């Protein structure tokens, strides 16, 4: 009986402190020469405060570096779990403060649209990084990477590789993790996506160089169980907007 109670307590502790977050990543595409101010006003003054009121914290808002066409705005929303996502979406529909704050945004005319389209992808956090990590102060460069796999099993093997091996190497070489998620819906599946933070591009380049020559990476990357686990990599460099909470 005592052993059972101990096991139960441990199970409850793991569920409370090891609970894996559920992430939504939206990518807004801005029309050529379009004005996105109404979108920023909506995010800063309506959506983020409403999500904060309903217990959602550490929301990231970023724009892509350089001058890509179309320009893109990225919104990262971490929920405690998938049930919390559904609960918050329902609560927002009845949040009068939020509904009032978004009226100006809803009234934007069709010929003054603030985005052409937006895509939305959802992710379950990795076992090895179950919650988002707030970047250290002064982080001005974020790297968003998506690893596509040729099959679901390929992605599962890459996730295992991170959980068992790569997180330790990332920590040792200054690749500062923000979130890691296995994609459950959205484009590019099957895939995983993660975000890193740096103070500058110089720090980023130097630390990736450390990673590439690290003996543990050389060992792990040659293991047969992880062979062909990544078929394509997509990378985007981002900078946080002034009202980002990351």
Portion of residues in helices?
Answer: 25-40%
How far apart are the termini?
46 Å
CATH topology annotation of the largest domain: Alpha-Beta Plaits
Q: What is the 3D form?
A: globular
Number of helical segments with 4 or more residues? 8
- How many discrete domains? 2
Largest sheet: 8 strands, antiparallel, barrel
What is the name of the CATH architecture of the largest domain?
Answer: 2-Layer Sandwich
Provide the gyration radius in Å.
20 Å
**Mean pLDDT, rounded to whole units?**
92
DSSP strand content: 25-35%
Element string (H = helix, E = strand): HEHEEHHHEEHEEHHE
Q: Note poorly predicted spans.
A: 1-17
What would you call the structural class? alpha+beta
Task: Give a description of the structure.
The protein has helices at residues 2-17, 37-53, 82-92, 96-101, 103-106, 152-173, 201-213, 215-221; strands at residues 22-30, 60-64, 71-79, 117-125, 141-148, 176-185, 191-198, 232-240. With 246 residues, the chain is α+β, with helices and mostly antiparallel strands. The protein folds into 2 domains: 20-125, Alpha-Beta Plaits, CATH 3.30.70.100; 126-239, 2-Layer Sandwich (Alpha-Beta Plaits), CATH 3.30.70.100. The protein starts with a helix and ends in a 6-residue tail after the last strand. The model is unreliable at 1-17 (pLDDT under 50).
């Amino acid at each position: 009986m005592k052993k059972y109670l101990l096991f139960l307590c441990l199970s409850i502790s793991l569920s409370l402190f090891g609970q894996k977050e559920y992430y939504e990543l939206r990518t807004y595409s801005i029309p050529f020469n379009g004005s996105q101010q109404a979108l920023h006003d909506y995010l800063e003054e309506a959506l983020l405060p409403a999500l904060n009121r309903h217990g959602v914290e550490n929301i990231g808002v970023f724009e892509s570096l350089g001058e890509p066409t179309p320009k893109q705005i990225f919104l990262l929303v971490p929920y405690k779990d998938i049930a919390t996502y559904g609960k918050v979406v329902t609560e927002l529909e009845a949040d009068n403060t939020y509904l009032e704050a978004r009226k100006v945004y809803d009234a934007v005319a069709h010929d003054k649209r603030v985005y052409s389209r937006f895509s939305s992808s959802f992710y379950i956090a990795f076992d090895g990084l179950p919650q988002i990590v707030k970047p250290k102060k002064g982080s001005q460069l974020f790297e968003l990477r998506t690893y596509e796999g040729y099959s679901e099993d390929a992605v599962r093997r890459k996730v295992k590789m991170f959980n068992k091996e790569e997180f330790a190497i990332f920590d040792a070489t200054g690749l500062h993790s923000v979130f890691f998620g296995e994609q459950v819906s959205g484009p590019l599946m099957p895939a995983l996506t993660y975000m890193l933070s740096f103070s500058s591009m110089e720090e980023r380049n130097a630390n990736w160089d450390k990673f590439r020559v690290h003996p543990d990476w050389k060992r792990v990357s040659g293991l047969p169980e992880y062979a062909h686990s990544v078929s394509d990599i997509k990378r985007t460099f981002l900078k946080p907007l002034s009202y980002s909470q990351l």
